[in-house]
Amino acid sequence: MDLILEGIKKAFWLIVTLDPEVLGITFLSLQISGAATLISLFIGISTGVMVALSRFSGKRIIVSLINTGMGLPPVVVGLFVTIFLWRNGPLGFLGILYTPTAMIIAQSVIATPIVMGITLAAIQQLPQKLRLQILALGATRLQMVWILIKEAKLPLLAAVMAGFGGVISEVGASIMVGGNIKGYSRVLTTATVMETSRGNFDIAIALGIILLLLAYLINLILTQIQQRERPR
Predict the structure, then answer these.
(1) Is residue 82's pLDDT more than 60?
(2) Spatial CA neighbour of 117 closest among 77, 76, 81, 72
(3) Domain residues of the chain, as ranges?
């Protein structure tokens, strides 16, 4: 109990004094996870909508793969991204292993199936007759897709929250592809693991509290938007 209280005090002190190292780690966490979430939204929503609206053989297999990807182990993602970006790997010539860019790639791979799966379910839940009604009113297929996305905006906002939550709290892949380099690729999760391994539990708890506060504030903003858009 004393450790937890000390961690809370430490977190309060680090926040109040605007500790430069903690601020740097926090902003880097936001930048990496924010960029990964945006990439996952672009790929996940577009692919999820396309799969939901298409009819083709093997669709159930594709959907099951997407649903499986929603629970993709981060360490497995980190392993394969590391292999691809290794100096002798297919993308080794890029020289981006142990950089924030590599972390963005890994986190995008983790978040994309989550966004894709929720988008797929959201679009499939819309009445099929709605598509026919939109087309009957003279809308193009692109306009129909946009209207369907607007109709499913509440679950899609949930997809944003789920995708961001999945990557801001991720640690395995971030350590593997980022290297946890001080002042360069160290984020809140990897710093927490490092301080725990060193026995600095007060600092680790402080970083954990800051991570929770950060995740809560982002999700609070998204929830406010979601609930404001909720039908009355």
Answers:
(1) yes
(2) 72
(3) 2-228
Task: Please choose, from the candidates 65, 71, 25, 73, the residue with its C-alpha nearest in 3D space to the C-alpha of residue 47.
Answer: 65
Alpha-carbon distance of 3 to 14, in angstroms, equals 16
Nearest to 49 by CA among 166, 159, 161: 159
List Cα–Cα distances, 120 to 62, 110, 158, 190, 211, in angstroms: 11, 17, 13, 32, 30
Name the token pair of 216: 């809560």
Q: Has domain 2-228 been given CATH number 1.10.3720.10?
A: yes
Q: What is the pLDDT of residues 102-130, one digit of tens each?
A: 999 999 999 999 999 999 999 988 887 88
Tokens standing for 38? Answer: 């945006």
Structure pTM?
A: 0.88
